[in-house]
């Protein structure tokens, strides 16, 4: 059963016990565009105690550079690019390092600018994505649309993430690439979060868009790059020798059981679930022992507040 962080001793024990703190972002650090209570103070406290602090988000709509801007904007300063891992970056790295897609191949994107920017930074050409021919006001579906009739023969991978500019044309072109050439073009999903949390309600998440093109094409993604996939954690471990050698020195903090908590657990890290996002206390306490988070807390800021 998960231990509740509800006293000074327990909060202090967590600060003392771990050297690496991996934070999910939405629902832990911020909610939408608002920083959660005492988060900046908690991060300061951890850094003063020489802890390594890393941020791991499944939101593919932004690039790492975009995230640096967001941290500043909500009042968290001094974060560097190597401390931020997003599913857009993880997907781009997967395409380069695991698929080893040649740089003269193109990537079809069903998603937002974060994916395009990370791929372009690695030297790839993207198509689809934010192309105004697919998103401009007044685009209505045309079964003979130029992009539907002229599939690009150089597309060597398809990547699907969340887009709020979704339409039938984009879904249909994505499906065409997925069934093209005997379904041989690799199909990469940024993340499988079924829902997308906004300040007062849950909306459609990337996983639900992926399901749609998956069902239509009769294919499952060849890789899901965000949490809980371990390729992102392996990349983090590669940059942090101490965590690689002793995963038990790491604590994964998140708000979702099937992504964040599984991500930490599968990688040998202890886990802390905070109740400022997706899950409720009842859901946490109902988890079987083998998958229950190590700890849970009302909010991340309790680590600061309880130790003052
Ligand atoms: N995907 C999208 C598009 C989002 O906007 C969010 C949250 O804002 C997420 C995923 C979940 O992100 P995180 O892993 O930081 O909770
Ligand atoms: Ca989250």
Automatic annotation (TrEMBL):
InterPro entries, alphabetized: HAD-like_sf, HAD-SF_hydro_IIA, HAD_sf, PGP_euk
GO cellular component: cytoplasm
Active-site residues (renumbered): 24 (nucleophile), 26 (proton donor)
Source species, domain of life: Eukaryota
Catalysed reactions listed for this entry: 4-nitrophenyl phosphate + H2O = 4-nitrophenol + phosphate + H(+)
One Gene Ontology MF term: phosphoglycolate phosphatase activity
Protein residues bound to substrate: 227
Keywords, comma-separated and alphabetical: Hydrolase, Magnesium, Metal-binding
EC number in record: 3.1.3.41
Cofactor mode of binding and number, as noted: Divalent metal ions. Mg(2+) is the most effective.
Cofactor: Mg(2+)
Residues reported in the UniProt entry to bind Mg(2+): 24, 26, 255
Pfam families: Hydrolase_6 (PF13344), Hydrolase_like (PF13242)
Protein name: 4-nitrophenylphosphatase
């Amino acid at each position: 059963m998960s231990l509740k962080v509800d006293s000074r001793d327990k909060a202090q024990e967590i600060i003392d016990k771990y050297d690496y703190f991996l934070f999910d972002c939405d629902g832990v650090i911020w909610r939408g565009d608002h920083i959660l209570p005492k988060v900046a103070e908690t991060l300061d406290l951890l850094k003063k105690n020489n802890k390594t602090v890393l941020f791991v988000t499944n939101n593919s709509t932004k690039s790492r550079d975009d995230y640096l801007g967001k941290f500043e904007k909500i009042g968290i300063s001094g974060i560097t690019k190597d401390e931020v891992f997003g599913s857009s970056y993880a997907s781009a790295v997967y395409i380069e390092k695991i698929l080893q897609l040649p740089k003269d191949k193109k990537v079809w994107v069903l998603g937002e600018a974060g994916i395009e920017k990370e791929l372009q930074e690695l030297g790839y050409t993207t198509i689809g994505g934010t192309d105004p021919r697919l998103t401009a006001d007044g685009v209505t579906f045309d079964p003979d649309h130029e992009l539907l009739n002229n599939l690009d023969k150089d597309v060597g991978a398809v990547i699907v993430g969340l887009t709020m500019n979704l339409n039938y044309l984009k879904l249909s072109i994505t499906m065409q690439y997925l069934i093209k050439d005997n379904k041989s073009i690799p199909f990469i999903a940024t993340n499988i979060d079924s829902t997308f949390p906004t300040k007062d309600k849950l909306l459609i998440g990337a996983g639900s868009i992926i399901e749609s093109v998956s069902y239509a094409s009769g294919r499952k993604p060849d890789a899901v790059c965000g949490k809980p996939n371990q390729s992102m954690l392996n990349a983090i471990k590669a940059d942090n020798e101490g965590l690689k050698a002793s995963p038990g020195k790491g604590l994964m903090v998140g708000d979702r059981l099937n992504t964040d908590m599984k991500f930490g657990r599968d990688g040998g890290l202890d886990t802390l679930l905070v109740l400022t996002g997706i899950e409720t206390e009842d859901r946490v306490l109902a988890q079987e022992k083998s998958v229950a988070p190590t700890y849970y807390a009302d909010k991340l800021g309790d680590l600061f507040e309880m130790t003052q």
